[in-house]
Amino acid sequence: MRIIGGEYRSRIIQMPKGTDIRPTQDKVRQAIFNILGDISGVSVLDLFAGSGAFGIEALSRGARRAVFIENDPKCVSTIRENLRSLTIPEDRYKIVNANALNAFSFLVKGAERYDLVFMDPPYYKNMAKKCLISLDSCDILSQFAFIVVERFKSDLLDDGIKELVLYKEKKYGDTVISIFRKK
């Protein structure tokens, strides 16, 4: 997998071996960043980080800082190695080895507010909806935050969300990218 744009453009990042992650296609990541536009200076939260591709792409494109949340130790190791291989300064990222749903209690205690959240949970487990509801109810988003959710086309997200509204949605085969904003 490669970084598509920014400072680390065309650099290769590794995928975790022996895991069940689904890497997001380059064209889909490119489309997402085209929709988002300039992300210079933003604070990023990458939930279900996998290889760290979304957060690393954001750092490459000028994000100030990224926090990677990943439960699988092999993926955490891969994220760490990808960041090191690109020589991204350690003060620009944090890696948290935790379940994404459990991480909200930890994140809400911090002072950081996130401008951009990437969420690519496992399909068929209703995790996208659960995390979106948690994001909606805890105070970790900045006033103008974007939340990018990659989900299976039949996973529904609209119940139980009060403060987030659907901004854009695009289909790519069985995958749907839903982008939310704060009201």
Write the layout of secondary structure elements.
Blueprint: H1 26-36, E1 43-47, H2 53-60, E2 65-70, H3 73-85, E3 93-97, H4 100-109, E4 114-119, H5 127-137, E5 141-152, E6 164-172, E7 175-182
Parallel strand pairs: 1-2, 1-4, 2-3, 4-5
Antiparallel strand pairs: 5-7, 6-7
Explain this structure to me?
The protein is an alpha/beta fold and 183 residues long. The chain has one domain (26-182): Rossmann fold. The protein contains 5 helices and 7 strands; from the N terminus they run αβαβαβαβαβββ. The protein has helices at 26-36, 53-60, 73-85, 100-109, 127-137, and strands at residues 43-47, 65-70, 93-97, 114-119, 141-152, 164-172, 175-182. A 7-stranded mixed beta sheet has the order 3-2-1-4-5-7-6, with helices on both faces. Strand 4 (114-119), helix 5 (127-137) and strand 5 (141-152) form a beta-alpha-beta unit.
Short description:
The protein has 183 residues and is an alpha/beta fold.
Kindly estimate the percentage of residues that lie in beta strands according to DSSP. Answer: 25-35%
Helix and strand element order: HEHEHEHEHEEE
Overall radius of gyration:
15 Å
Query: How would you characterize the largest beta sheet?
Result: 7 strands, mixed
* CATH-defined architecture: 3-Layer(aba) Sandwich
Helix count from the secondary structure assignment: 5
CATH topology: Rossmann fold
CATH class type: Alpha Beta
